[in-house]
Amino acid sequence: MIKVLYFGRVADAVGAREQRFDAPAGGCTVAALKALVARDESERYASLNLPWVRSSVDQRLGGDDAWVAEDSEVAFFSPYSGG
Amino acid sequence: MAVSTRLATEPLNPASELADFLKRRDDDGAVVTFTGLTRGERGSVCTLRLDWYPGMTEGSLRTIAEEVSRLFEVSDVLVVHRGGDLRPGEPIVLVAVAARHRREAFLCADQLMDRLKTEAAFWKHESGPDGGRWIEPSDRDVRDRARWN
C-alpha cells in the first residue's frame, strides 16, 4: 500500500490530505503513481502535473522518475512558504 | 557547539526560551535573539495557519540551523518554530545565537532567519474577512536570502 500525502495548494486542489493506493507489484515511478491516482478522476488530480508541484518519496525530494516502493510514503505539494 | 531545533505546536514563550538559553554562558560574550511575530496586516489577517510535514519539516529546520551555524564562530544555536494556527501578535519563530563575540552572533542569526523565511518546509495559509490565501516567500524574502550567496 502506498501512502500519498498532499500539502499546500495541492491539498486544496485535490480536496484531500492523505490517501492510500494499492501499489503495482514491484513498485513504480512517481509519474506512474500520478497516473494511477488520477485514473478515474483526471480533472480532480490535474494539479499533480502542474510545473510548480513538487514531490518526495519517503521524505526525499525527487522528480517524476523517482522510484516508489510498494510501501512508500509519497507527498505532493506546492513550493514551501518558508517560516 | 550545540544546535537545537524544535517545532512547537503550542504557544511559544520567548522569555522562557531565552532564560534557559542564557544559563551557563561563562565563556560567551554575546547572545543575539530574534523573535518573529504574526502580522495582522491591519485587520486583513485573522488567522495564520502553518501546515507542516511531520519529519520533513523538522529536518528542514535542523538542516538550515546546522548549515548556517557552521559558517560562523558561534557557541550554540537555538531555533524554535511554531506550527498550527496563530493569531496576530503571536510569536511564530525564535532564533537565539550565543558566541564569544557579538558580530558573529548577529550575522549568524541574520542568515538563519533569511534561510528560514525562504526554505523552511511550511505551507502558510492566512485567512481574514476577505477569505483565505496561501503565502509564498515575498520578493524581499528572496532578495534577503540572496545576500548570502
Task: Give a brief description.
The complex is a heterodimer of chains A (83) and B (149). Chain A is α+β, with helices and mostly antiparallel strands and 83 residues long.
State the secondary-structure class of chain A. alpha+beta
Distance between the termini of chain B: 24 Å
Shape of chain A: globular
Whole-angstrom Rg of chain B: 16 Å
Helix/strand order of chain B = EHEEHEEEHEEH
Order of helices and strands of chain A: EHEEHEEEE
Q: What is the tally of beta strands of chain B?
A: 8
Main β-sheet, spatial strand arrangement of chain A: 2-1-7-4-5
Poorly predicted ranges of chain A (pLDDT <50, ≥5 residues)? none
- Summarize the main sheet of chain B: 4 strands, mixed
Query: Spatial order of the strands in the main sheet of chain B?
Result: 1-4-6-2
Portion in helices of chain A = 10-25%
On the 0-100 scale, what is the average pLDDT of chain B?
95
Oligomer: heterodimer
What can you tell me about this protein's structure?
The complex is a heterodimer of chains A (83) and B (149). Chain A is α+β, with helices and mostly antiparallel strands and 83 residues long. Chain A is 17% helix and 31% strand. In chain A, the strands form two sheets. A five-stranded mixed beta sheet of chain A has the order 2-1-7-4-5. A two-stranded antiparallel ribbon of chain A has the order 3-6. In chain A, β4 and β5 form a beta hairpin. The mean pLDDT of chain A is 96. Chain B has a four-stranded mixed beta sheet, with helices on both faces. The longest helix of chain B has 18 residues, at 102-119. Chain B is α+β, with helices and mostly antiparallel strands and 149 residues long. Chain B is 32% helix and 35% strand. Chains A and B meet through α1 of A and α2, α3 and β7 of B.
